[in-house]
Design goal:
- The protein is mainly alpha-helical and about 80 residues long.
- It has a single domain (about 5-75), classed as Winged helix-like DNA-binding domain superfamily/Winged helix DNA-binding domain (Arc Repressor Mutant, subunit A, Orthogonal Bundle), CATH 1.10.10.10.
- Helices cover about 60% and strands about 10% of the residues.
- The protein has 4 helices and 2 strands; from the N terminus they run αααββα.
- The chain has a two-stranded antiparallel sheet with strand order 1-2.
- A hairpin with a 4-residue loop joins strand 1 (about 50-55) and strand 2 (about 60).
Length: about 80
């Protein structure tokens, strides 16, 4: 697995999306203390890793993202 999937930011972002699927990017960015553009860039990286799915509004975890979050939460 790509080591970028194991960063602390990734765990926080995946957890936030898991708690609130469909939340607007701007709202998630605020929760994670990032500007919206930076958040969207990072989420695109997670999507490229197969961890998130873009919805009409917001995001949800892919099955792989759920598995990675479970693994990171257990560490």
């Amino acid at each position: 697995r790509d080591r970028r999937a194991k960063t602390p930011w990734t765990r926080r972002a995946l957890a936030a999306i898991a708690r609130q699927p469909g939340t607007r990017a701007a709202d998630l960015a605020t929760q994670l203390q990032l500007d919206t553009a930076t958040f969207k860039r990072r989420i695109r990286q997670l999507k490229a890793l197969g961890l998130t799915i873009s919805l009409d509004t917001g995001y949800q975890l892919s099955p792989r993202g759920e598995a990675v979050l479970a693994e990171l939460s257990a560490e």
